[in-house]
Design a protein that fits this description.
single chain, alpha+beta, Arc Repressor Mutant, subunit A, 3-stranded antiparallel β-sheet, two-stranded parallel ribbon, 7 helices, about 15% strand, globular
């Protein structure tokens, strides 16, 4: 078996998706999982990814090719063989503007589907943190930040706030990382509620 290529970060910070067909292609649940794993864990093969997500290598290979056809992943040059191809993510994140898709009912449906998946992923991340807290060193317990803020804002000001916070996080993302440290997940949500859950 070929050695694992080093976990080089994707070459581009983010991709802006404006084509509903590209958004739909990415929205497939298994493709999103595979893309997420390549972004978080670095290059891998269809076989290794299949073992990781409990899918056949034929299935993961097909979905990796679909992601490559839309520019989300690429083969790792000079790695593997014809039968064992290595893949890596091209971008660190994917962005889209909901407003770009509101006039197309099919695209709007895809955006809603992606939103529900993001909310589910946030739940899983928070639940995993709650389960793992007992094993964290004290310095990490002190560094963890869980916040919620309640503001009364217009849609325009809420969007400006989100853009400002995104810019701060982009600056941190683009700064040199500390490869010997664990991944830190930052969840950032700006959302209106008509009724606060109890």
């Amino acid at each position: 078996m070929a050695p694992t290529p080093p976990p080089v970060p994707p070459s581009q910070a983010a991709v802006d998706v404006r084509d509903p067909r590209v958004l739909r292609a990415m929205a497939h649940p298994l493709r999103m999982t595979l893309l997420g794993l390549l972004r978080l864990e670095g290059p891998s093969t269809a076989t290794r990814l299949g073992e990781r997500v409990q899918e056949s290598s034929g299935s993961t290979s097909y979905h990796l090719r679909q992601l490559a056809a839309h520019g989300f992943v690429e083969e790792v040059a000079d790695q593997g063989t014809g039968r064992e191809r290595w893949w890596r993510a091209v971008h660190r994140s994917t962005r889209w503007e909901t407003s770009d898709f509101l006039d197309d009912p099919g695209a709007r449906e895809v955006v809603e589907e992606l939103t529900h998946r993001q909310v589910s992923q946030h739940r899983r991340l928070l639940a995993a943190h709650a389960e793992q807290r007992a094993d964290l060193p004290e310095e990490w317990l002190a560094a963890v930040s869980l916040n919620d803020w309640h503001l009364r804002l217009s849609p325009a000001r809420a969007r400006a706030l989100a853009e400002e916070l995104d810019a701060v996080l982009a600056r941190w993302r683009d700064a040199p990382e500390e490869p010997d440290q664990p991944q830190v997940h930052v969840l950032l949500d700006v959302l209106p509620l008509t009724e606060h859950p109890l």
